[in-house]
Specification:
Two copies of one chain form a homodimer.
Chain A (H helix, E strand, L loop, with lengths): L1 H18 L4 H8 L5 H6 L7 H11 L3 H13 L3
Chain lengths: 79, 79
C-alpha cells in the first residue's frame, strides 16, 4: 500500500499547484524546501512528515479538510 | 510553530482513541507501531510521516476529512 498512497498524494499536490499556477521551484522556495523535493513528492517518491504536509497545504492555499477530502477520494481509486 | 502543531495533532489522536475506547497499546499493536510510539505522538514528541497518519486514522476509524476538520480547528487555537 505504500506506493499508491504516496503517488495519490503527489497527484493531489500537483493538482493544487497547477490550480495556483505555481512552478515546482517557486512552491519549493515558498515552503523552504529543497528545489528537487516537490518533484519527488509529486512522483510519490517521498513520504512527507506531517509538518511538511501542513507547510505544503498552507503555501498551496488549500485548507486541510479541502485537501484531504480530495485525497481520500483519490485513495479510493487505488484501493 | 513546530511544537504546537504536533501537540495539537497528539491531542486529536488522543481524542479519537478515547472515543473508540482503545488503549495506547492496543492501537499501537493494530497499527503495527512500537508500543511507546502512540504516547510520543500524543505528547507531540513525534512528527509522523504521511503514511503513519493514514494508518492511525484508519485504525481509529475516522475518515481523513473528519480528522483534519477537527485538527484544523484545533490549530486555530494555537495560531
Amino acid at each position: 500500500m505504500r506506493e499508491p498512497t504516496l503517488k495519490a498524494f503527489g497527484q493531489e499536490v500537483r493538482h493544487w499547484r497547477a490550480e495556483r499556477r505555481l512552478s515546482q521551484e517557486v512552491l519549493a522556495d515558498q515552503c523552504g524546501f529543497h528545489r528537487t523535493y516537490i518533484g519527488q513528492i509529486e512522483r510519490g517518491e517521498r513520504n512527507p512528515s506531517l509538518i511538511n504536509v501542513l507547510t505544503l497545504c498552507r503555501h498551496l492555499g488549500v485548507s486541510l479538510p479541502e485537501f484531504f477530502i480530495r485525497y481520500e477520494a483519490a485513495l479510493g481509486t487505488f484501493a
